[in-house]
Design brief:
Arc Repressor Mutant, subunit A, 6 helices, two-stranded antiparallel ribbon, 2 strands, about 5% strand
Length: about 130
């Protein structure tokens, strides 16, 4: 299981790059060049981030992408949710089958405790904190 997929990783790197350049719109061409991500793949990620109001875009000469809100208000868990869905470590091995031990399973309780901790930590990580190296 991957906690952060390629889509989330690329989106996070793009958002951090844009956050480091707050006074100007960052073009797709610049992001492609600096981050070495395929253009069509990156464009799709940026479109999703714009639709989800993480980024805002401007067209034309000098156009590109800017953060839609402060880096202190963009959380890693939000990006994970956008591209991967809810953080979920505690899925039963039986998937959709009804498990008779669901309420008493010791492993489930342990994994739920770990999941709660991971989600709490992810909720504390902002773009600003990543840029500060914290």
């Amino acid at each position: 299981m991957k906690l952060v997929t390629r889509n989330t990783d690329y989106a996070l790197r793009a958002v951090c790059f844009i956050a480091r350049n707050p006074k100007r719109a960052v073009s797709v061409s610049e992001l492609v060049e600096k981050m070495e991500i395929p253009r069509s793949f990156l464009r799709k990620l940026l479109q999703v981030l714009s639709k989800k109001k993480v980024l805002r875009s401007s067209k034309g000469q000098g156009g590109g992408f800017l953060l839609a809100r402060s880096p202190k208000k963009i959380f890693l868990v939000e990006l994970i949710s956008i591209f991967q869905g809810q953080v979920k470590l505690n899925e039963c091995f039986f998937k959709k089958l009804s498990c008779p031990n669901k309420k008493t399973c010791a492993l489930r309780k342990k994994i739920q405790s770990i999941e709660d901790y991971v989600v709490k930590e992810l909720n504390s990580i902002t773009i600003a904190s990543l840029l500060e190296g914290k």
